[in-house]
Amino acid sequence: MRKKLLTTEPLILDAYVVVFVNDGSCSEGKILKVTGAIRGLHRKKPCVPASKVSES
């Protein structure tokens, strides 16, 4: 599966879909990992090392 690297967080994201956003909100060397959620729940948005994005 190809990982998606975006520059802005999408307004609409299906539940459990993961995208990586490089918008400068995380510290240097890290990228925001956004996981879509079902209605009524907040998206998960941890900062992960950029090396995790390039793996697999």
Commentary on this structure:
- The protein is mainly beta.
- The chain has one domain (5-54).
- Helices cover 9% and strands 27% of the residues.
- It is built from one helix and four strands; from the N terminus they run E-E-E-E-H.
- It has one helix at residues 50-54, and strands at 5-6, 18-21, 30-35, 47-49.
- It has a four-stranded mixed β-sheet with strand order 1-2-3-4.
- Strand 2 (18-21) and strand 3 (30-35) form a beta hairpin.
- It is elongated, with a radius of gyration of 11 Å.
Count of β-strands: 4
Sheet with most strands: strand arrangement = 1-2-3-4
**Contiguous helical run count:** 1
- How far is it from the N-terminal to the C-terminal residue, by CA? 9 Å
Major sheet description:
4 strands, mixed
What pattern of helices and strands is seen along the backbone?
A: EEEEH
Strand content: 25-35%
Helix content: under 10%
Mean pLDDT: 89
Low-confidence stretches: none
> Which outline best applies?
elongated
Query: What number of structural domains do the residues give?
Result: 1
Label the structural class: mainly beta
What is the radius of gyration computed over CA atoms, rounded to a whole number of angstroms?
11 Å
